[in-house]
Amino acid sequence: MSLRWNRALVTGASSGIGREIARQLAADGTDLVIVARDEQRLTELAAELGPDTDVTDHDKSNGVDVEILVADLTDRTQTALVEQRLEATDHPIDLLVNNAGFGKGGPFSENDRDIATDVLEVNMVAVLRLAHAAANAMEERGRGGILNISSMAGDLVAPHSAVYSATKAFVTSLSESLHAELAPHGVVVTASLPGMTRTEFQDRAEVDVSDIPDVAWQTAAEVAEESLAALAANKPRIVPGRLNKVLGAASRTLPTAAMRIAGRQAMKRQNH
Fold this sequence. Notes:
Blueprint (H helix, E strand, L loop, with lengths): L6 E5 L4 H12 L3 E6 L2 H11 L16 E5 L5 H12 L7 E4 L14 H29 L2 E6 L12 H21 L4 E6 L4 E2 L2 H5 L12 E2 H13 L4 E2 L3 H12 L2 H16 L1
Parallel strand pairs: 1-2, 1-4, 2-3, 4-5, 5-6, 6-9, 7-8
Helix pairs in contact: 1-7, 3-4, 4-5
């Protein structure tokens, strides 16, 4: 199965995996609606991907159409603007990439409660609401795709990242259920579960990753490419990277008790 997209809406498009997904979609001739809080970064990306950009679709030799939508997904009012764009019949969206997300490291009891709630709002509530809006519109047209960027963390016991890990478990579970539910309506749904990826995420989350070897890391471009390929192949989930696939398979077969022990050991290393 191979799918091409006419117009994609990508959240969290101002940096990291979202930006690379936008670039790769544009290179394939897909028009874009790029969403993030940072208007300047979105403007710069639109300038990069818009007119005079070389693309593989010869009908768009002057570059793809790029629409900017500035929105903070911790704010339900602003999230509603993105929902409305997904439901619009003018220049309809046939691919949603739910990429926006963030985390906050540290002991759960020391986390700021409001920030933790914002993590849920972006990583779960916005993903749910945008997927719902997209599914309604796509079901009616009988065609569409939803790519949800989750994380391997959702399959792990993750001390000091408990809230983030829990939100990603939700994203993966929701995606796999929707993959089965929406298939009869012509809508493809895939969850991508990246491992360690070189983006701004770790610095923003204030997570120390200095002891993680280079072999464990992927680039955002690599994750974007594998994620889009999995969606085009109609896979319910993808763990990008060969090493991550092995680790991911192991985490799904380990007994819960063993996962807890591994989590406690990881926490001990963080405290030293």
